[in-house]
Amino acid sequence: MKKTKIFPIFKMAIIAALAGAAGYIAFAVPDTVQSMVPTAETVRAEICEYCPTVTAKGTIIKQGERWLAVVAVNEADISLIEQGQTAYLNGAALAEGRYSGSVISIGDTAYTAPVSSSAIPETVVDVTISIENGSFGELRSGYSVTAQLKTGEERTLTMLPYTAIGQDDKGEYVYILENGISVRKDIVTGIELADKTEIVSGVDADDRVLTYPENVLENSYYRVVQR
Predict the structure, then answer these.
(1) How far is it, in rounded angstroms, from Cα 76 to Cα 57?
(2) pTM of the entire predicted model
(3) Torsion angle of alpha carbons 128, 96, 66, 144, nearest 10°?
(4) Is the pLDDT of residue 85 over 90?
(5) Contact 110, 54 (CB under 8 A)
(6) DSSP 221
């Protein structure tokens, strides 16, 4: 009687990986083999609406019958501000979402003032906003105000968390999981937010992107785990 040759477990793992990469299922992979395959987490790109704004704090004043908001814009952002831009206003005494206006003037002089909670002086420029919408009877000169100055048009962004993005001497990149294999894709990033960044090119919405790319080996087989 001819004896059947028994493959060592690591050879079975290699064959299973190669079969999976080729898109075939040669046999059911035993759990013991599966446990030897490294695991990884994946994320998909998030599609969101974004409107670029500059935030500035200041004070409500009244000139004749006209209500104005004078806010201090940081010198790093003042080049983004133009006359006619829309501003959304809120504050401790102002109902959120009820007040808005437009920029009517930008100061000619910069000065230093503590304008944030850190109380560290910043170099700022005064920007005057004409309040055009809201309950004017509820406004008082001297009220504090926070303005969101709209500096660009709303647009749709493709975003990924920073934990999915790697960088080396070739530039920024991600690893995409294709048929269980890690494939590198070079990317171009754009706007940066608190915990994610815009992907201008290199990633499609349905791609499965591996997290922590610094721990990923290129062209290697990975088993996805859910957290």
Answers:
(1) 15
(2) 0.60
(3) -60
(4) yes
(5) no
(6) B
